[in-house]
């Protein structure tokens, strides 16, 4: 991968830099936060930003910056874990559909159709009914929803690559479907997978926040950005800062990831940018 070429795209640098900064902020919370997130000081409830508490304190007197740092880590971990499930299962399914075709392709498409019929919230409700709410169940719900997304992206990209001469040459050389998929299809659709992964990561952040907000995701005493929003809902009109801080953090993370995704798309596949400009001119 030509890093110098990638770094020539300002949107990629800005988006990836901002997303990385948020991720590092979350990782730092593993070893340090300004205050312990479980520290409750009732006498210091509802404080605004000050030198001691840069983002103020919540309804229990906990430091908001510490909660945001820990909550950001939780949101990234849930979204990234769900992304690994989607890529790890969906991409092989899509490659299998493109390489083998026939009954395999039909089965993959039908499984994708069935999974798409159930949004991640519905899947989370079903899982929570059987096993109870929690981070693991949120990961499973979002991950299951990611599978058909990557399966369809991988299948579409692989079908386009499968018409190339070097794929036909590989078949003439005696390569089987599995070898064709691994040696020729996967490397040539990697850019599509990377761009889609960036998009799904941002959607995973939103989904985790939504699931935690309705009580199906992260549970106290752990924290997440969605759980912070849930705790602030009854106090929003009196102390709007409690909801603005986690809400704005979610918005900034998602915007950063989307900008990074656009930059990656332009950098890894310039044809998409040219086609978009041509359509706009037409």
UniProtKB/TrEMBL annotation:
Keywords: Cell membrane, Membrane, Transmembrane, Transmembrane helix, Transport. The chain crosses the membrane at residues 12-32, 76-100, 107-130, 192-214, 235-260. One of its GO terms (cellular component) is plasma membrane. Residues 72-261 form the ABC transmembrane type-1 domain. It is found in: Cell membrane. It comes from the Bacteria. GO terms for biological process: transmembrane transport. It is a multi-pass membrane protein. Belongs to the binding-protein-dependent transport system permease family. PANTHER family: OLIGOPEPTIDE TRANSPORT SYSTEM PERMEASE PROTEIN APPC, PEPTIDE ABC TRANSPORTER PERMEASE PROTEIN. This is Peptide ABC transporter permease. It comes from Devosia elaeis.
